[in-house]
UniProtKB/TrEMBL annotation:
Gene name for this UniProt entry: Ykt6b
Statement: the UniProt record of this protein carries the keyword Membrane: yes
Membrane topology classification: Lipid-anchor
GO molecular function: SNAP receptor activity
Protein name listed in UniProt: YKT6B protein
Keyword set includes Protein transport: yes
Any matching Pfam family: Longin
Subcellular location: Endomembrane system
Domain of life assignment: Eukaryota
Length: 137
C-alpha cells in the first residue's frame, strides 16, 4: 500500500491551479520520476476541474486510485494512491490537510497562489506519516 502524491489545489474561475504538493516517486525508475510527477500534477488538476464544489470522489487512472475532495469554498485536495490503500484513510487525510491549510494560508492567497508563493510545509510530513511501510523481517 502506497501513497504517491498529496496535492492542495484551488478550483477557481475559469481554471484550477496547484497551490502546494508533495510527491513520493522513490519507487519509480530515476529516469521516469519527473514524467510520473508531471502526470500526477496534470491528473490532479484535471480531476478537480471535473469535480463539483462540495464533492468527494475516487477515480481510477491507470494503476492509481485518485481520491479527490473539493470543498464548497473552492479549496481542493487530491491523494494518489495504489488500489490497496484504504479509501476512508485517504479522505480522513484530505479533511485534515484542507482544514489545516485553510487555517494557515489566507483565503485571499488561494486564487493567485502557486507552489512557489504559498508557505505551507506540512504536506511532505503527512505523505510520509500516512505511508504504509512493509513490515521488517
Amino acid at each position: 500500500m502506497r501513497l504517491y502524491s498529496l496535492s492542495v489545489l484551488y478550483k477557481g474561475d475559469p481554471k484550477v491551479h496547484l497551490l502546494k504538493a508533495a510527491y513520493d516517486v522513490s519507487t519509480f525508475n530515476f529516469f521516469q520520476r519527473s514524467s510520473v510527477q508531471e502526470f500526477m500534477t496534470f491528473t490532479s488538476q484535471l480531476i478537480v476541474e471535473r469535480s463539483e464544489l462540495g464533492s468527494r470522489a475516487s477515480v481510477k487512472e491507470q494503476e492509481y486510485l485518485c481520491h479527490v475532495y473539493v470543498r464548497n469554498d473552492g479549496l481542493a485536495g487530491v491523494v494518489m494512491a495504489d488500489k490497496e490503500y484504504p479509501q476512508r484513510v485517504c479522505f480522513t487525510l484530505l479533511d485534515k490537510v484542507l482544514e489545516e491549510f485553510s487555517r494557515q494560508v489566507s483565503k485571499m492567497d488561494w486564487p493567485s497562489g502557486s507552489p512557489a508563493t504559498i508557505s505551507y510545509t506540512a504536506l511532505d510530513g503527512y505523505l510520509s506519516k500516512y505511508q504504509v511501510r512493509p513490515p521488517r523481517v
